[in-house]
């Protein structure tokens, strides 16, 4: 064109910015090496390993019982689920039966843990959205009620060390069931309150709807699990697909999202809390009397072989792969950490979005660095 | 994104926060006010019953950190073991309670105390004199239901009626 106005050409070039490892939004020591074009994310490379403690190697020189405190320190927001998954793997390996009452107590603990973990997940996500501190403090208040119950049962608030191979360490005290019933009566009201607080908030909707879409196909292909997979429209829940413990006796729905965006992941977690409360009500009703621990020797020597025990943790499929050489310690101990595998979808979810959205997308997959790095 | 009535959701959410203004706080002012801890609390020390201990060393084997040191000698007169040394480095201890669970003679307990800040690292080291049950060093009910029943009832947040939703 022969016009007189000069065209302004701005040469942009990719610019690498590190988000983390010590950034409040990364929920732990996680680094996102983002390549930016202006404010738009061109590429993202996750860098982790800052919290590596060598747990898998440490476990190989401990007896099967002594590994249980180590599993507490994987996903420190869901220690009960970790304990349970490990015990399921050992029981599979050694062929140990679990008493009925212990199975029900395990379900109660795992579901309470799911509620507690989702409260943190949702609270932290809303915190990342810019609803600063108010929602997370409301949710921490309800989590405190659950932690009180855990404290009553096993004497700790974070690292429970409660499940044992062949049952649970000790029976629940007498005052546990009344307190749990009281909690179950209150909790739906609190969840309604969270919904009133932010479900229809226009700012939250504008920021999270349609952001960070993980397509159904990609979610399946990378092996995502948990709320991240279900928000993409795949009704996959190990409690239903491969029932462990006594989950085949309970009625519950699997909440599924439609779009696979950040908002759906948030919605799925809130709905899962309601479903967990439903399972808890049924579990209390069916709780039988009897032993809580079968006769298991101090030093378990499983036969030579391998086993994989998995369950639906709050963050996805948590699996323990154990190889036994017939001795008192596992020959190989491997953890299939759900958030580690969900993280592989992060780069695809982030590409094309702005930096402010990256924080949101990262928050929506609910990460726990203790589990990623182990 | 387009909204038909912008601001309604925000107003709805703010009604929740405003209602919180009318509630009483559920928190306690810790050093002055104290809640009762769990009867099964895994407190910050190990307590050892010298008379019941036979020196079998099951606790030391159950510990996966190796924080318990025990050495025994044979008493040929009474034909039994005598405990020469019983020490715990609570700086290494993670209070998993596996040692208490493993003890076959009910000689090892966790303490009911939970404030474990010390000025020197050496103070975390417990030798046999520091492991005796006294009036200050109370025993927790972890793994001992009989002892748990005697301890005060744990104060629970679900029993706390302050901070309740209005009208419920």
Outline:
The complex is a heterodimer of chains A (374) and B (168). Chain A is of the alpha+beta class and 374 residues long.
Describe this structure in words.
The complex is a heterodimer of chains A (374) and B (168). Chain A has 374 residues and is an alpha+beta fold. Chain A has a single domain, classed as Cytochrome-c3 Hydrogenase, chain B (Orthogonal Bundle). Helix content of chain A is 46%, strand content 13%. Chain A has 15 helices and 8 strands. In chain A, the strands form 3 sheets. In chain A, strands 1-2-3 form a 3-stranded antiparallel beta sheet. A 3-stranded antiparallel beta sheet of chain A has the order 6-7-8. In chain A, 51% of the residues are buried. By secondary structure, chain B is an alpha+beta fold. Helix content of chain B is 18%, strand content 15%. Chain B is built from 4 helices and 5 strands. The model of chain B has no long low-confidence stretch (mean pLDDT 82). Classes of the chains: A alpha+beta (374), B alpha+beta (168). Chains A and B meet through helix 2, helix 5, helix 6 and helix 7 of A and helix 1 and helix 3 of B.
Question: How does the SSE layout of this entry go?
Answer:
The complex is a heterodimer of chains A (374) and B (168).
Chain A: E1 15-19, E2 31-37, E3 40-47, H1 55-59, H2 68-72, H3 79-94, H4 100-129, H5 134-154, E4 163-164, E5 167-168, H6 176-198, H7 202-208, H8 216-222, H9 227-231, H10 238-241, H11 262-286, E6 305-313, E7 316-324, E8 332-336, H12 338-342, H13 346-350, H14 355-364, H15 369-373
Antiparallel strand pairs in A: 1-2, 2-3, 4-5, 6-7, 7-8
Helix pairs in contact in A: 3-4, 4-5, 4-11, 4-14, 5-6, 6-11
Chain B: H1 8-21, E1 46-48, H2 58-62, E2 68-75, E3 80-89, H3 98-102, E4 108-110, E5 125-126, H4 145-150
Antiparallel strand pairs in B: 1-4, 2-3, 3-5
């Amino acid at each position: 064109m022969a016009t007189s106005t000069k065209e302004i050409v701005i040469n942009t070039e990719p610019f690498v910015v590190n988000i983390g490892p010590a950034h409040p939004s990364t929920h732990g020591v996680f680094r996102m090496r983002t390549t930016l074009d202006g404010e738009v994310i061109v590429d993202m490379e996750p860098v982790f390993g800052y919290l590596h403690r060598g747990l898998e190697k440490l476990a190989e020189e401990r007896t099967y019982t002594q590994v249980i405190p180590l599993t507490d320190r994987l996903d420190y927001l869901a220690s009960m689920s970790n304990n349970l998954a490990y015990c399921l793997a050992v029981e599979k390996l050694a062929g140990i039966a679990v008493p009925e009452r212990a199975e029900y107590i395990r379900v109660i603990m795992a579901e309470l843990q799911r509620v507690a973990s989702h409260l943190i997940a949702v609270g932290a996500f809303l915190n990342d959205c810019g609803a600063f501190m108010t929602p997370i403090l409301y949710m921490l208040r309800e989590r405190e009620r659950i932690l009180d119950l855990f404290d009553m049962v096993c004497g700790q608030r974070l690292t429970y060390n409660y499940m044992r191979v062949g049952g649970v360490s000790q029976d629940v005290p007498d005052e546990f069931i009344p307190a749990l019933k009281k909690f179950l009566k209150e909790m739906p009201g609190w969840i309604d309150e969270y919904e009133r607080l932010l479900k229809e908030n226009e700012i939250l909707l504008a920021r999270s709807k349609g952001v960070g879409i993980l397509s159904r196909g990609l979610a399946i292909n990378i092996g995502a699990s948990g709320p991240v997979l279900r928000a993409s429209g795949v009704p996959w829940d190990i409690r239903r697909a491969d029932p462990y413990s006594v989950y085949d006796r309970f009625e519950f729905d699997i909440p599924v999202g439609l779009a696979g965006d950040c908002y759906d992941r948030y919605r799925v977690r809130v709905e899962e809390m309601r479903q967990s409360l439903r399972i808890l009500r049924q579990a209390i009703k069916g709780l039988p009397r009897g032993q809580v621990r079968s006769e298991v020797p101090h030093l378990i020597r499983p036969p030579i072989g391998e086993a994989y025990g998995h369950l639906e943790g709050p963050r996805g499929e948590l699996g323990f792969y154990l190889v036994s050489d017939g001795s008192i310690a596992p020959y190989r101990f491997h953890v299939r950490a759900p958030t580690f595998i969900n993280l592989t979808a992060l780069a695809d979810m982030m590409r094309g979005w702005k930096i402010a959205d990256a924080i949101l997308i990262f928050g929506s997959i609910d990460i726990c660095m203790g589990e990623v790095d182990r | 994104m387009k909204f038909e009535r912008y601001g309604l959701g925000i107003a709805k959410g703010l009604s929740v926060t405003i209602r919180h203004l009318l509630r009483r706080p559920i928190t306690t002012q810790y050093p002055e006010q104290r809640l009762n801890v769990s009867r099964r609390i895994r407190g910050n020390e190990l307590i050892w019953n010298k008379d019941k201990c036979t020196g079998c060393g099951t606790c030391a084997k159950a510990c996966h950190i190796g924080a318990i040191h025990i050495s025994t000698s044979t008493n040929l007169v009474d034909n039994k073991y005598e405990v020469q040394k019983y020490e715990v480095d609570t700086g290494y201890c993670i209070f998993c309670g596996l040692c208490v669970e493993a003890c076959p003679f009910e000689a090892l307990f966790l303490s009911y105390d939970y404030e474990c800040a010390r000025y020197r690292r050496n103070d975390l080291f417990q030798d046999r004199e520091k492991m005796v049950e006294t009036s200050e060093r109370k025993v927790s009910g972890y793994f001992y239901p009989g002892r748990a029943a005697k301890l005060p009832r744990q104060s629970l947040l679900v029993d706390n009626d302050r901070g309740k939703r209005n009208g419920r």
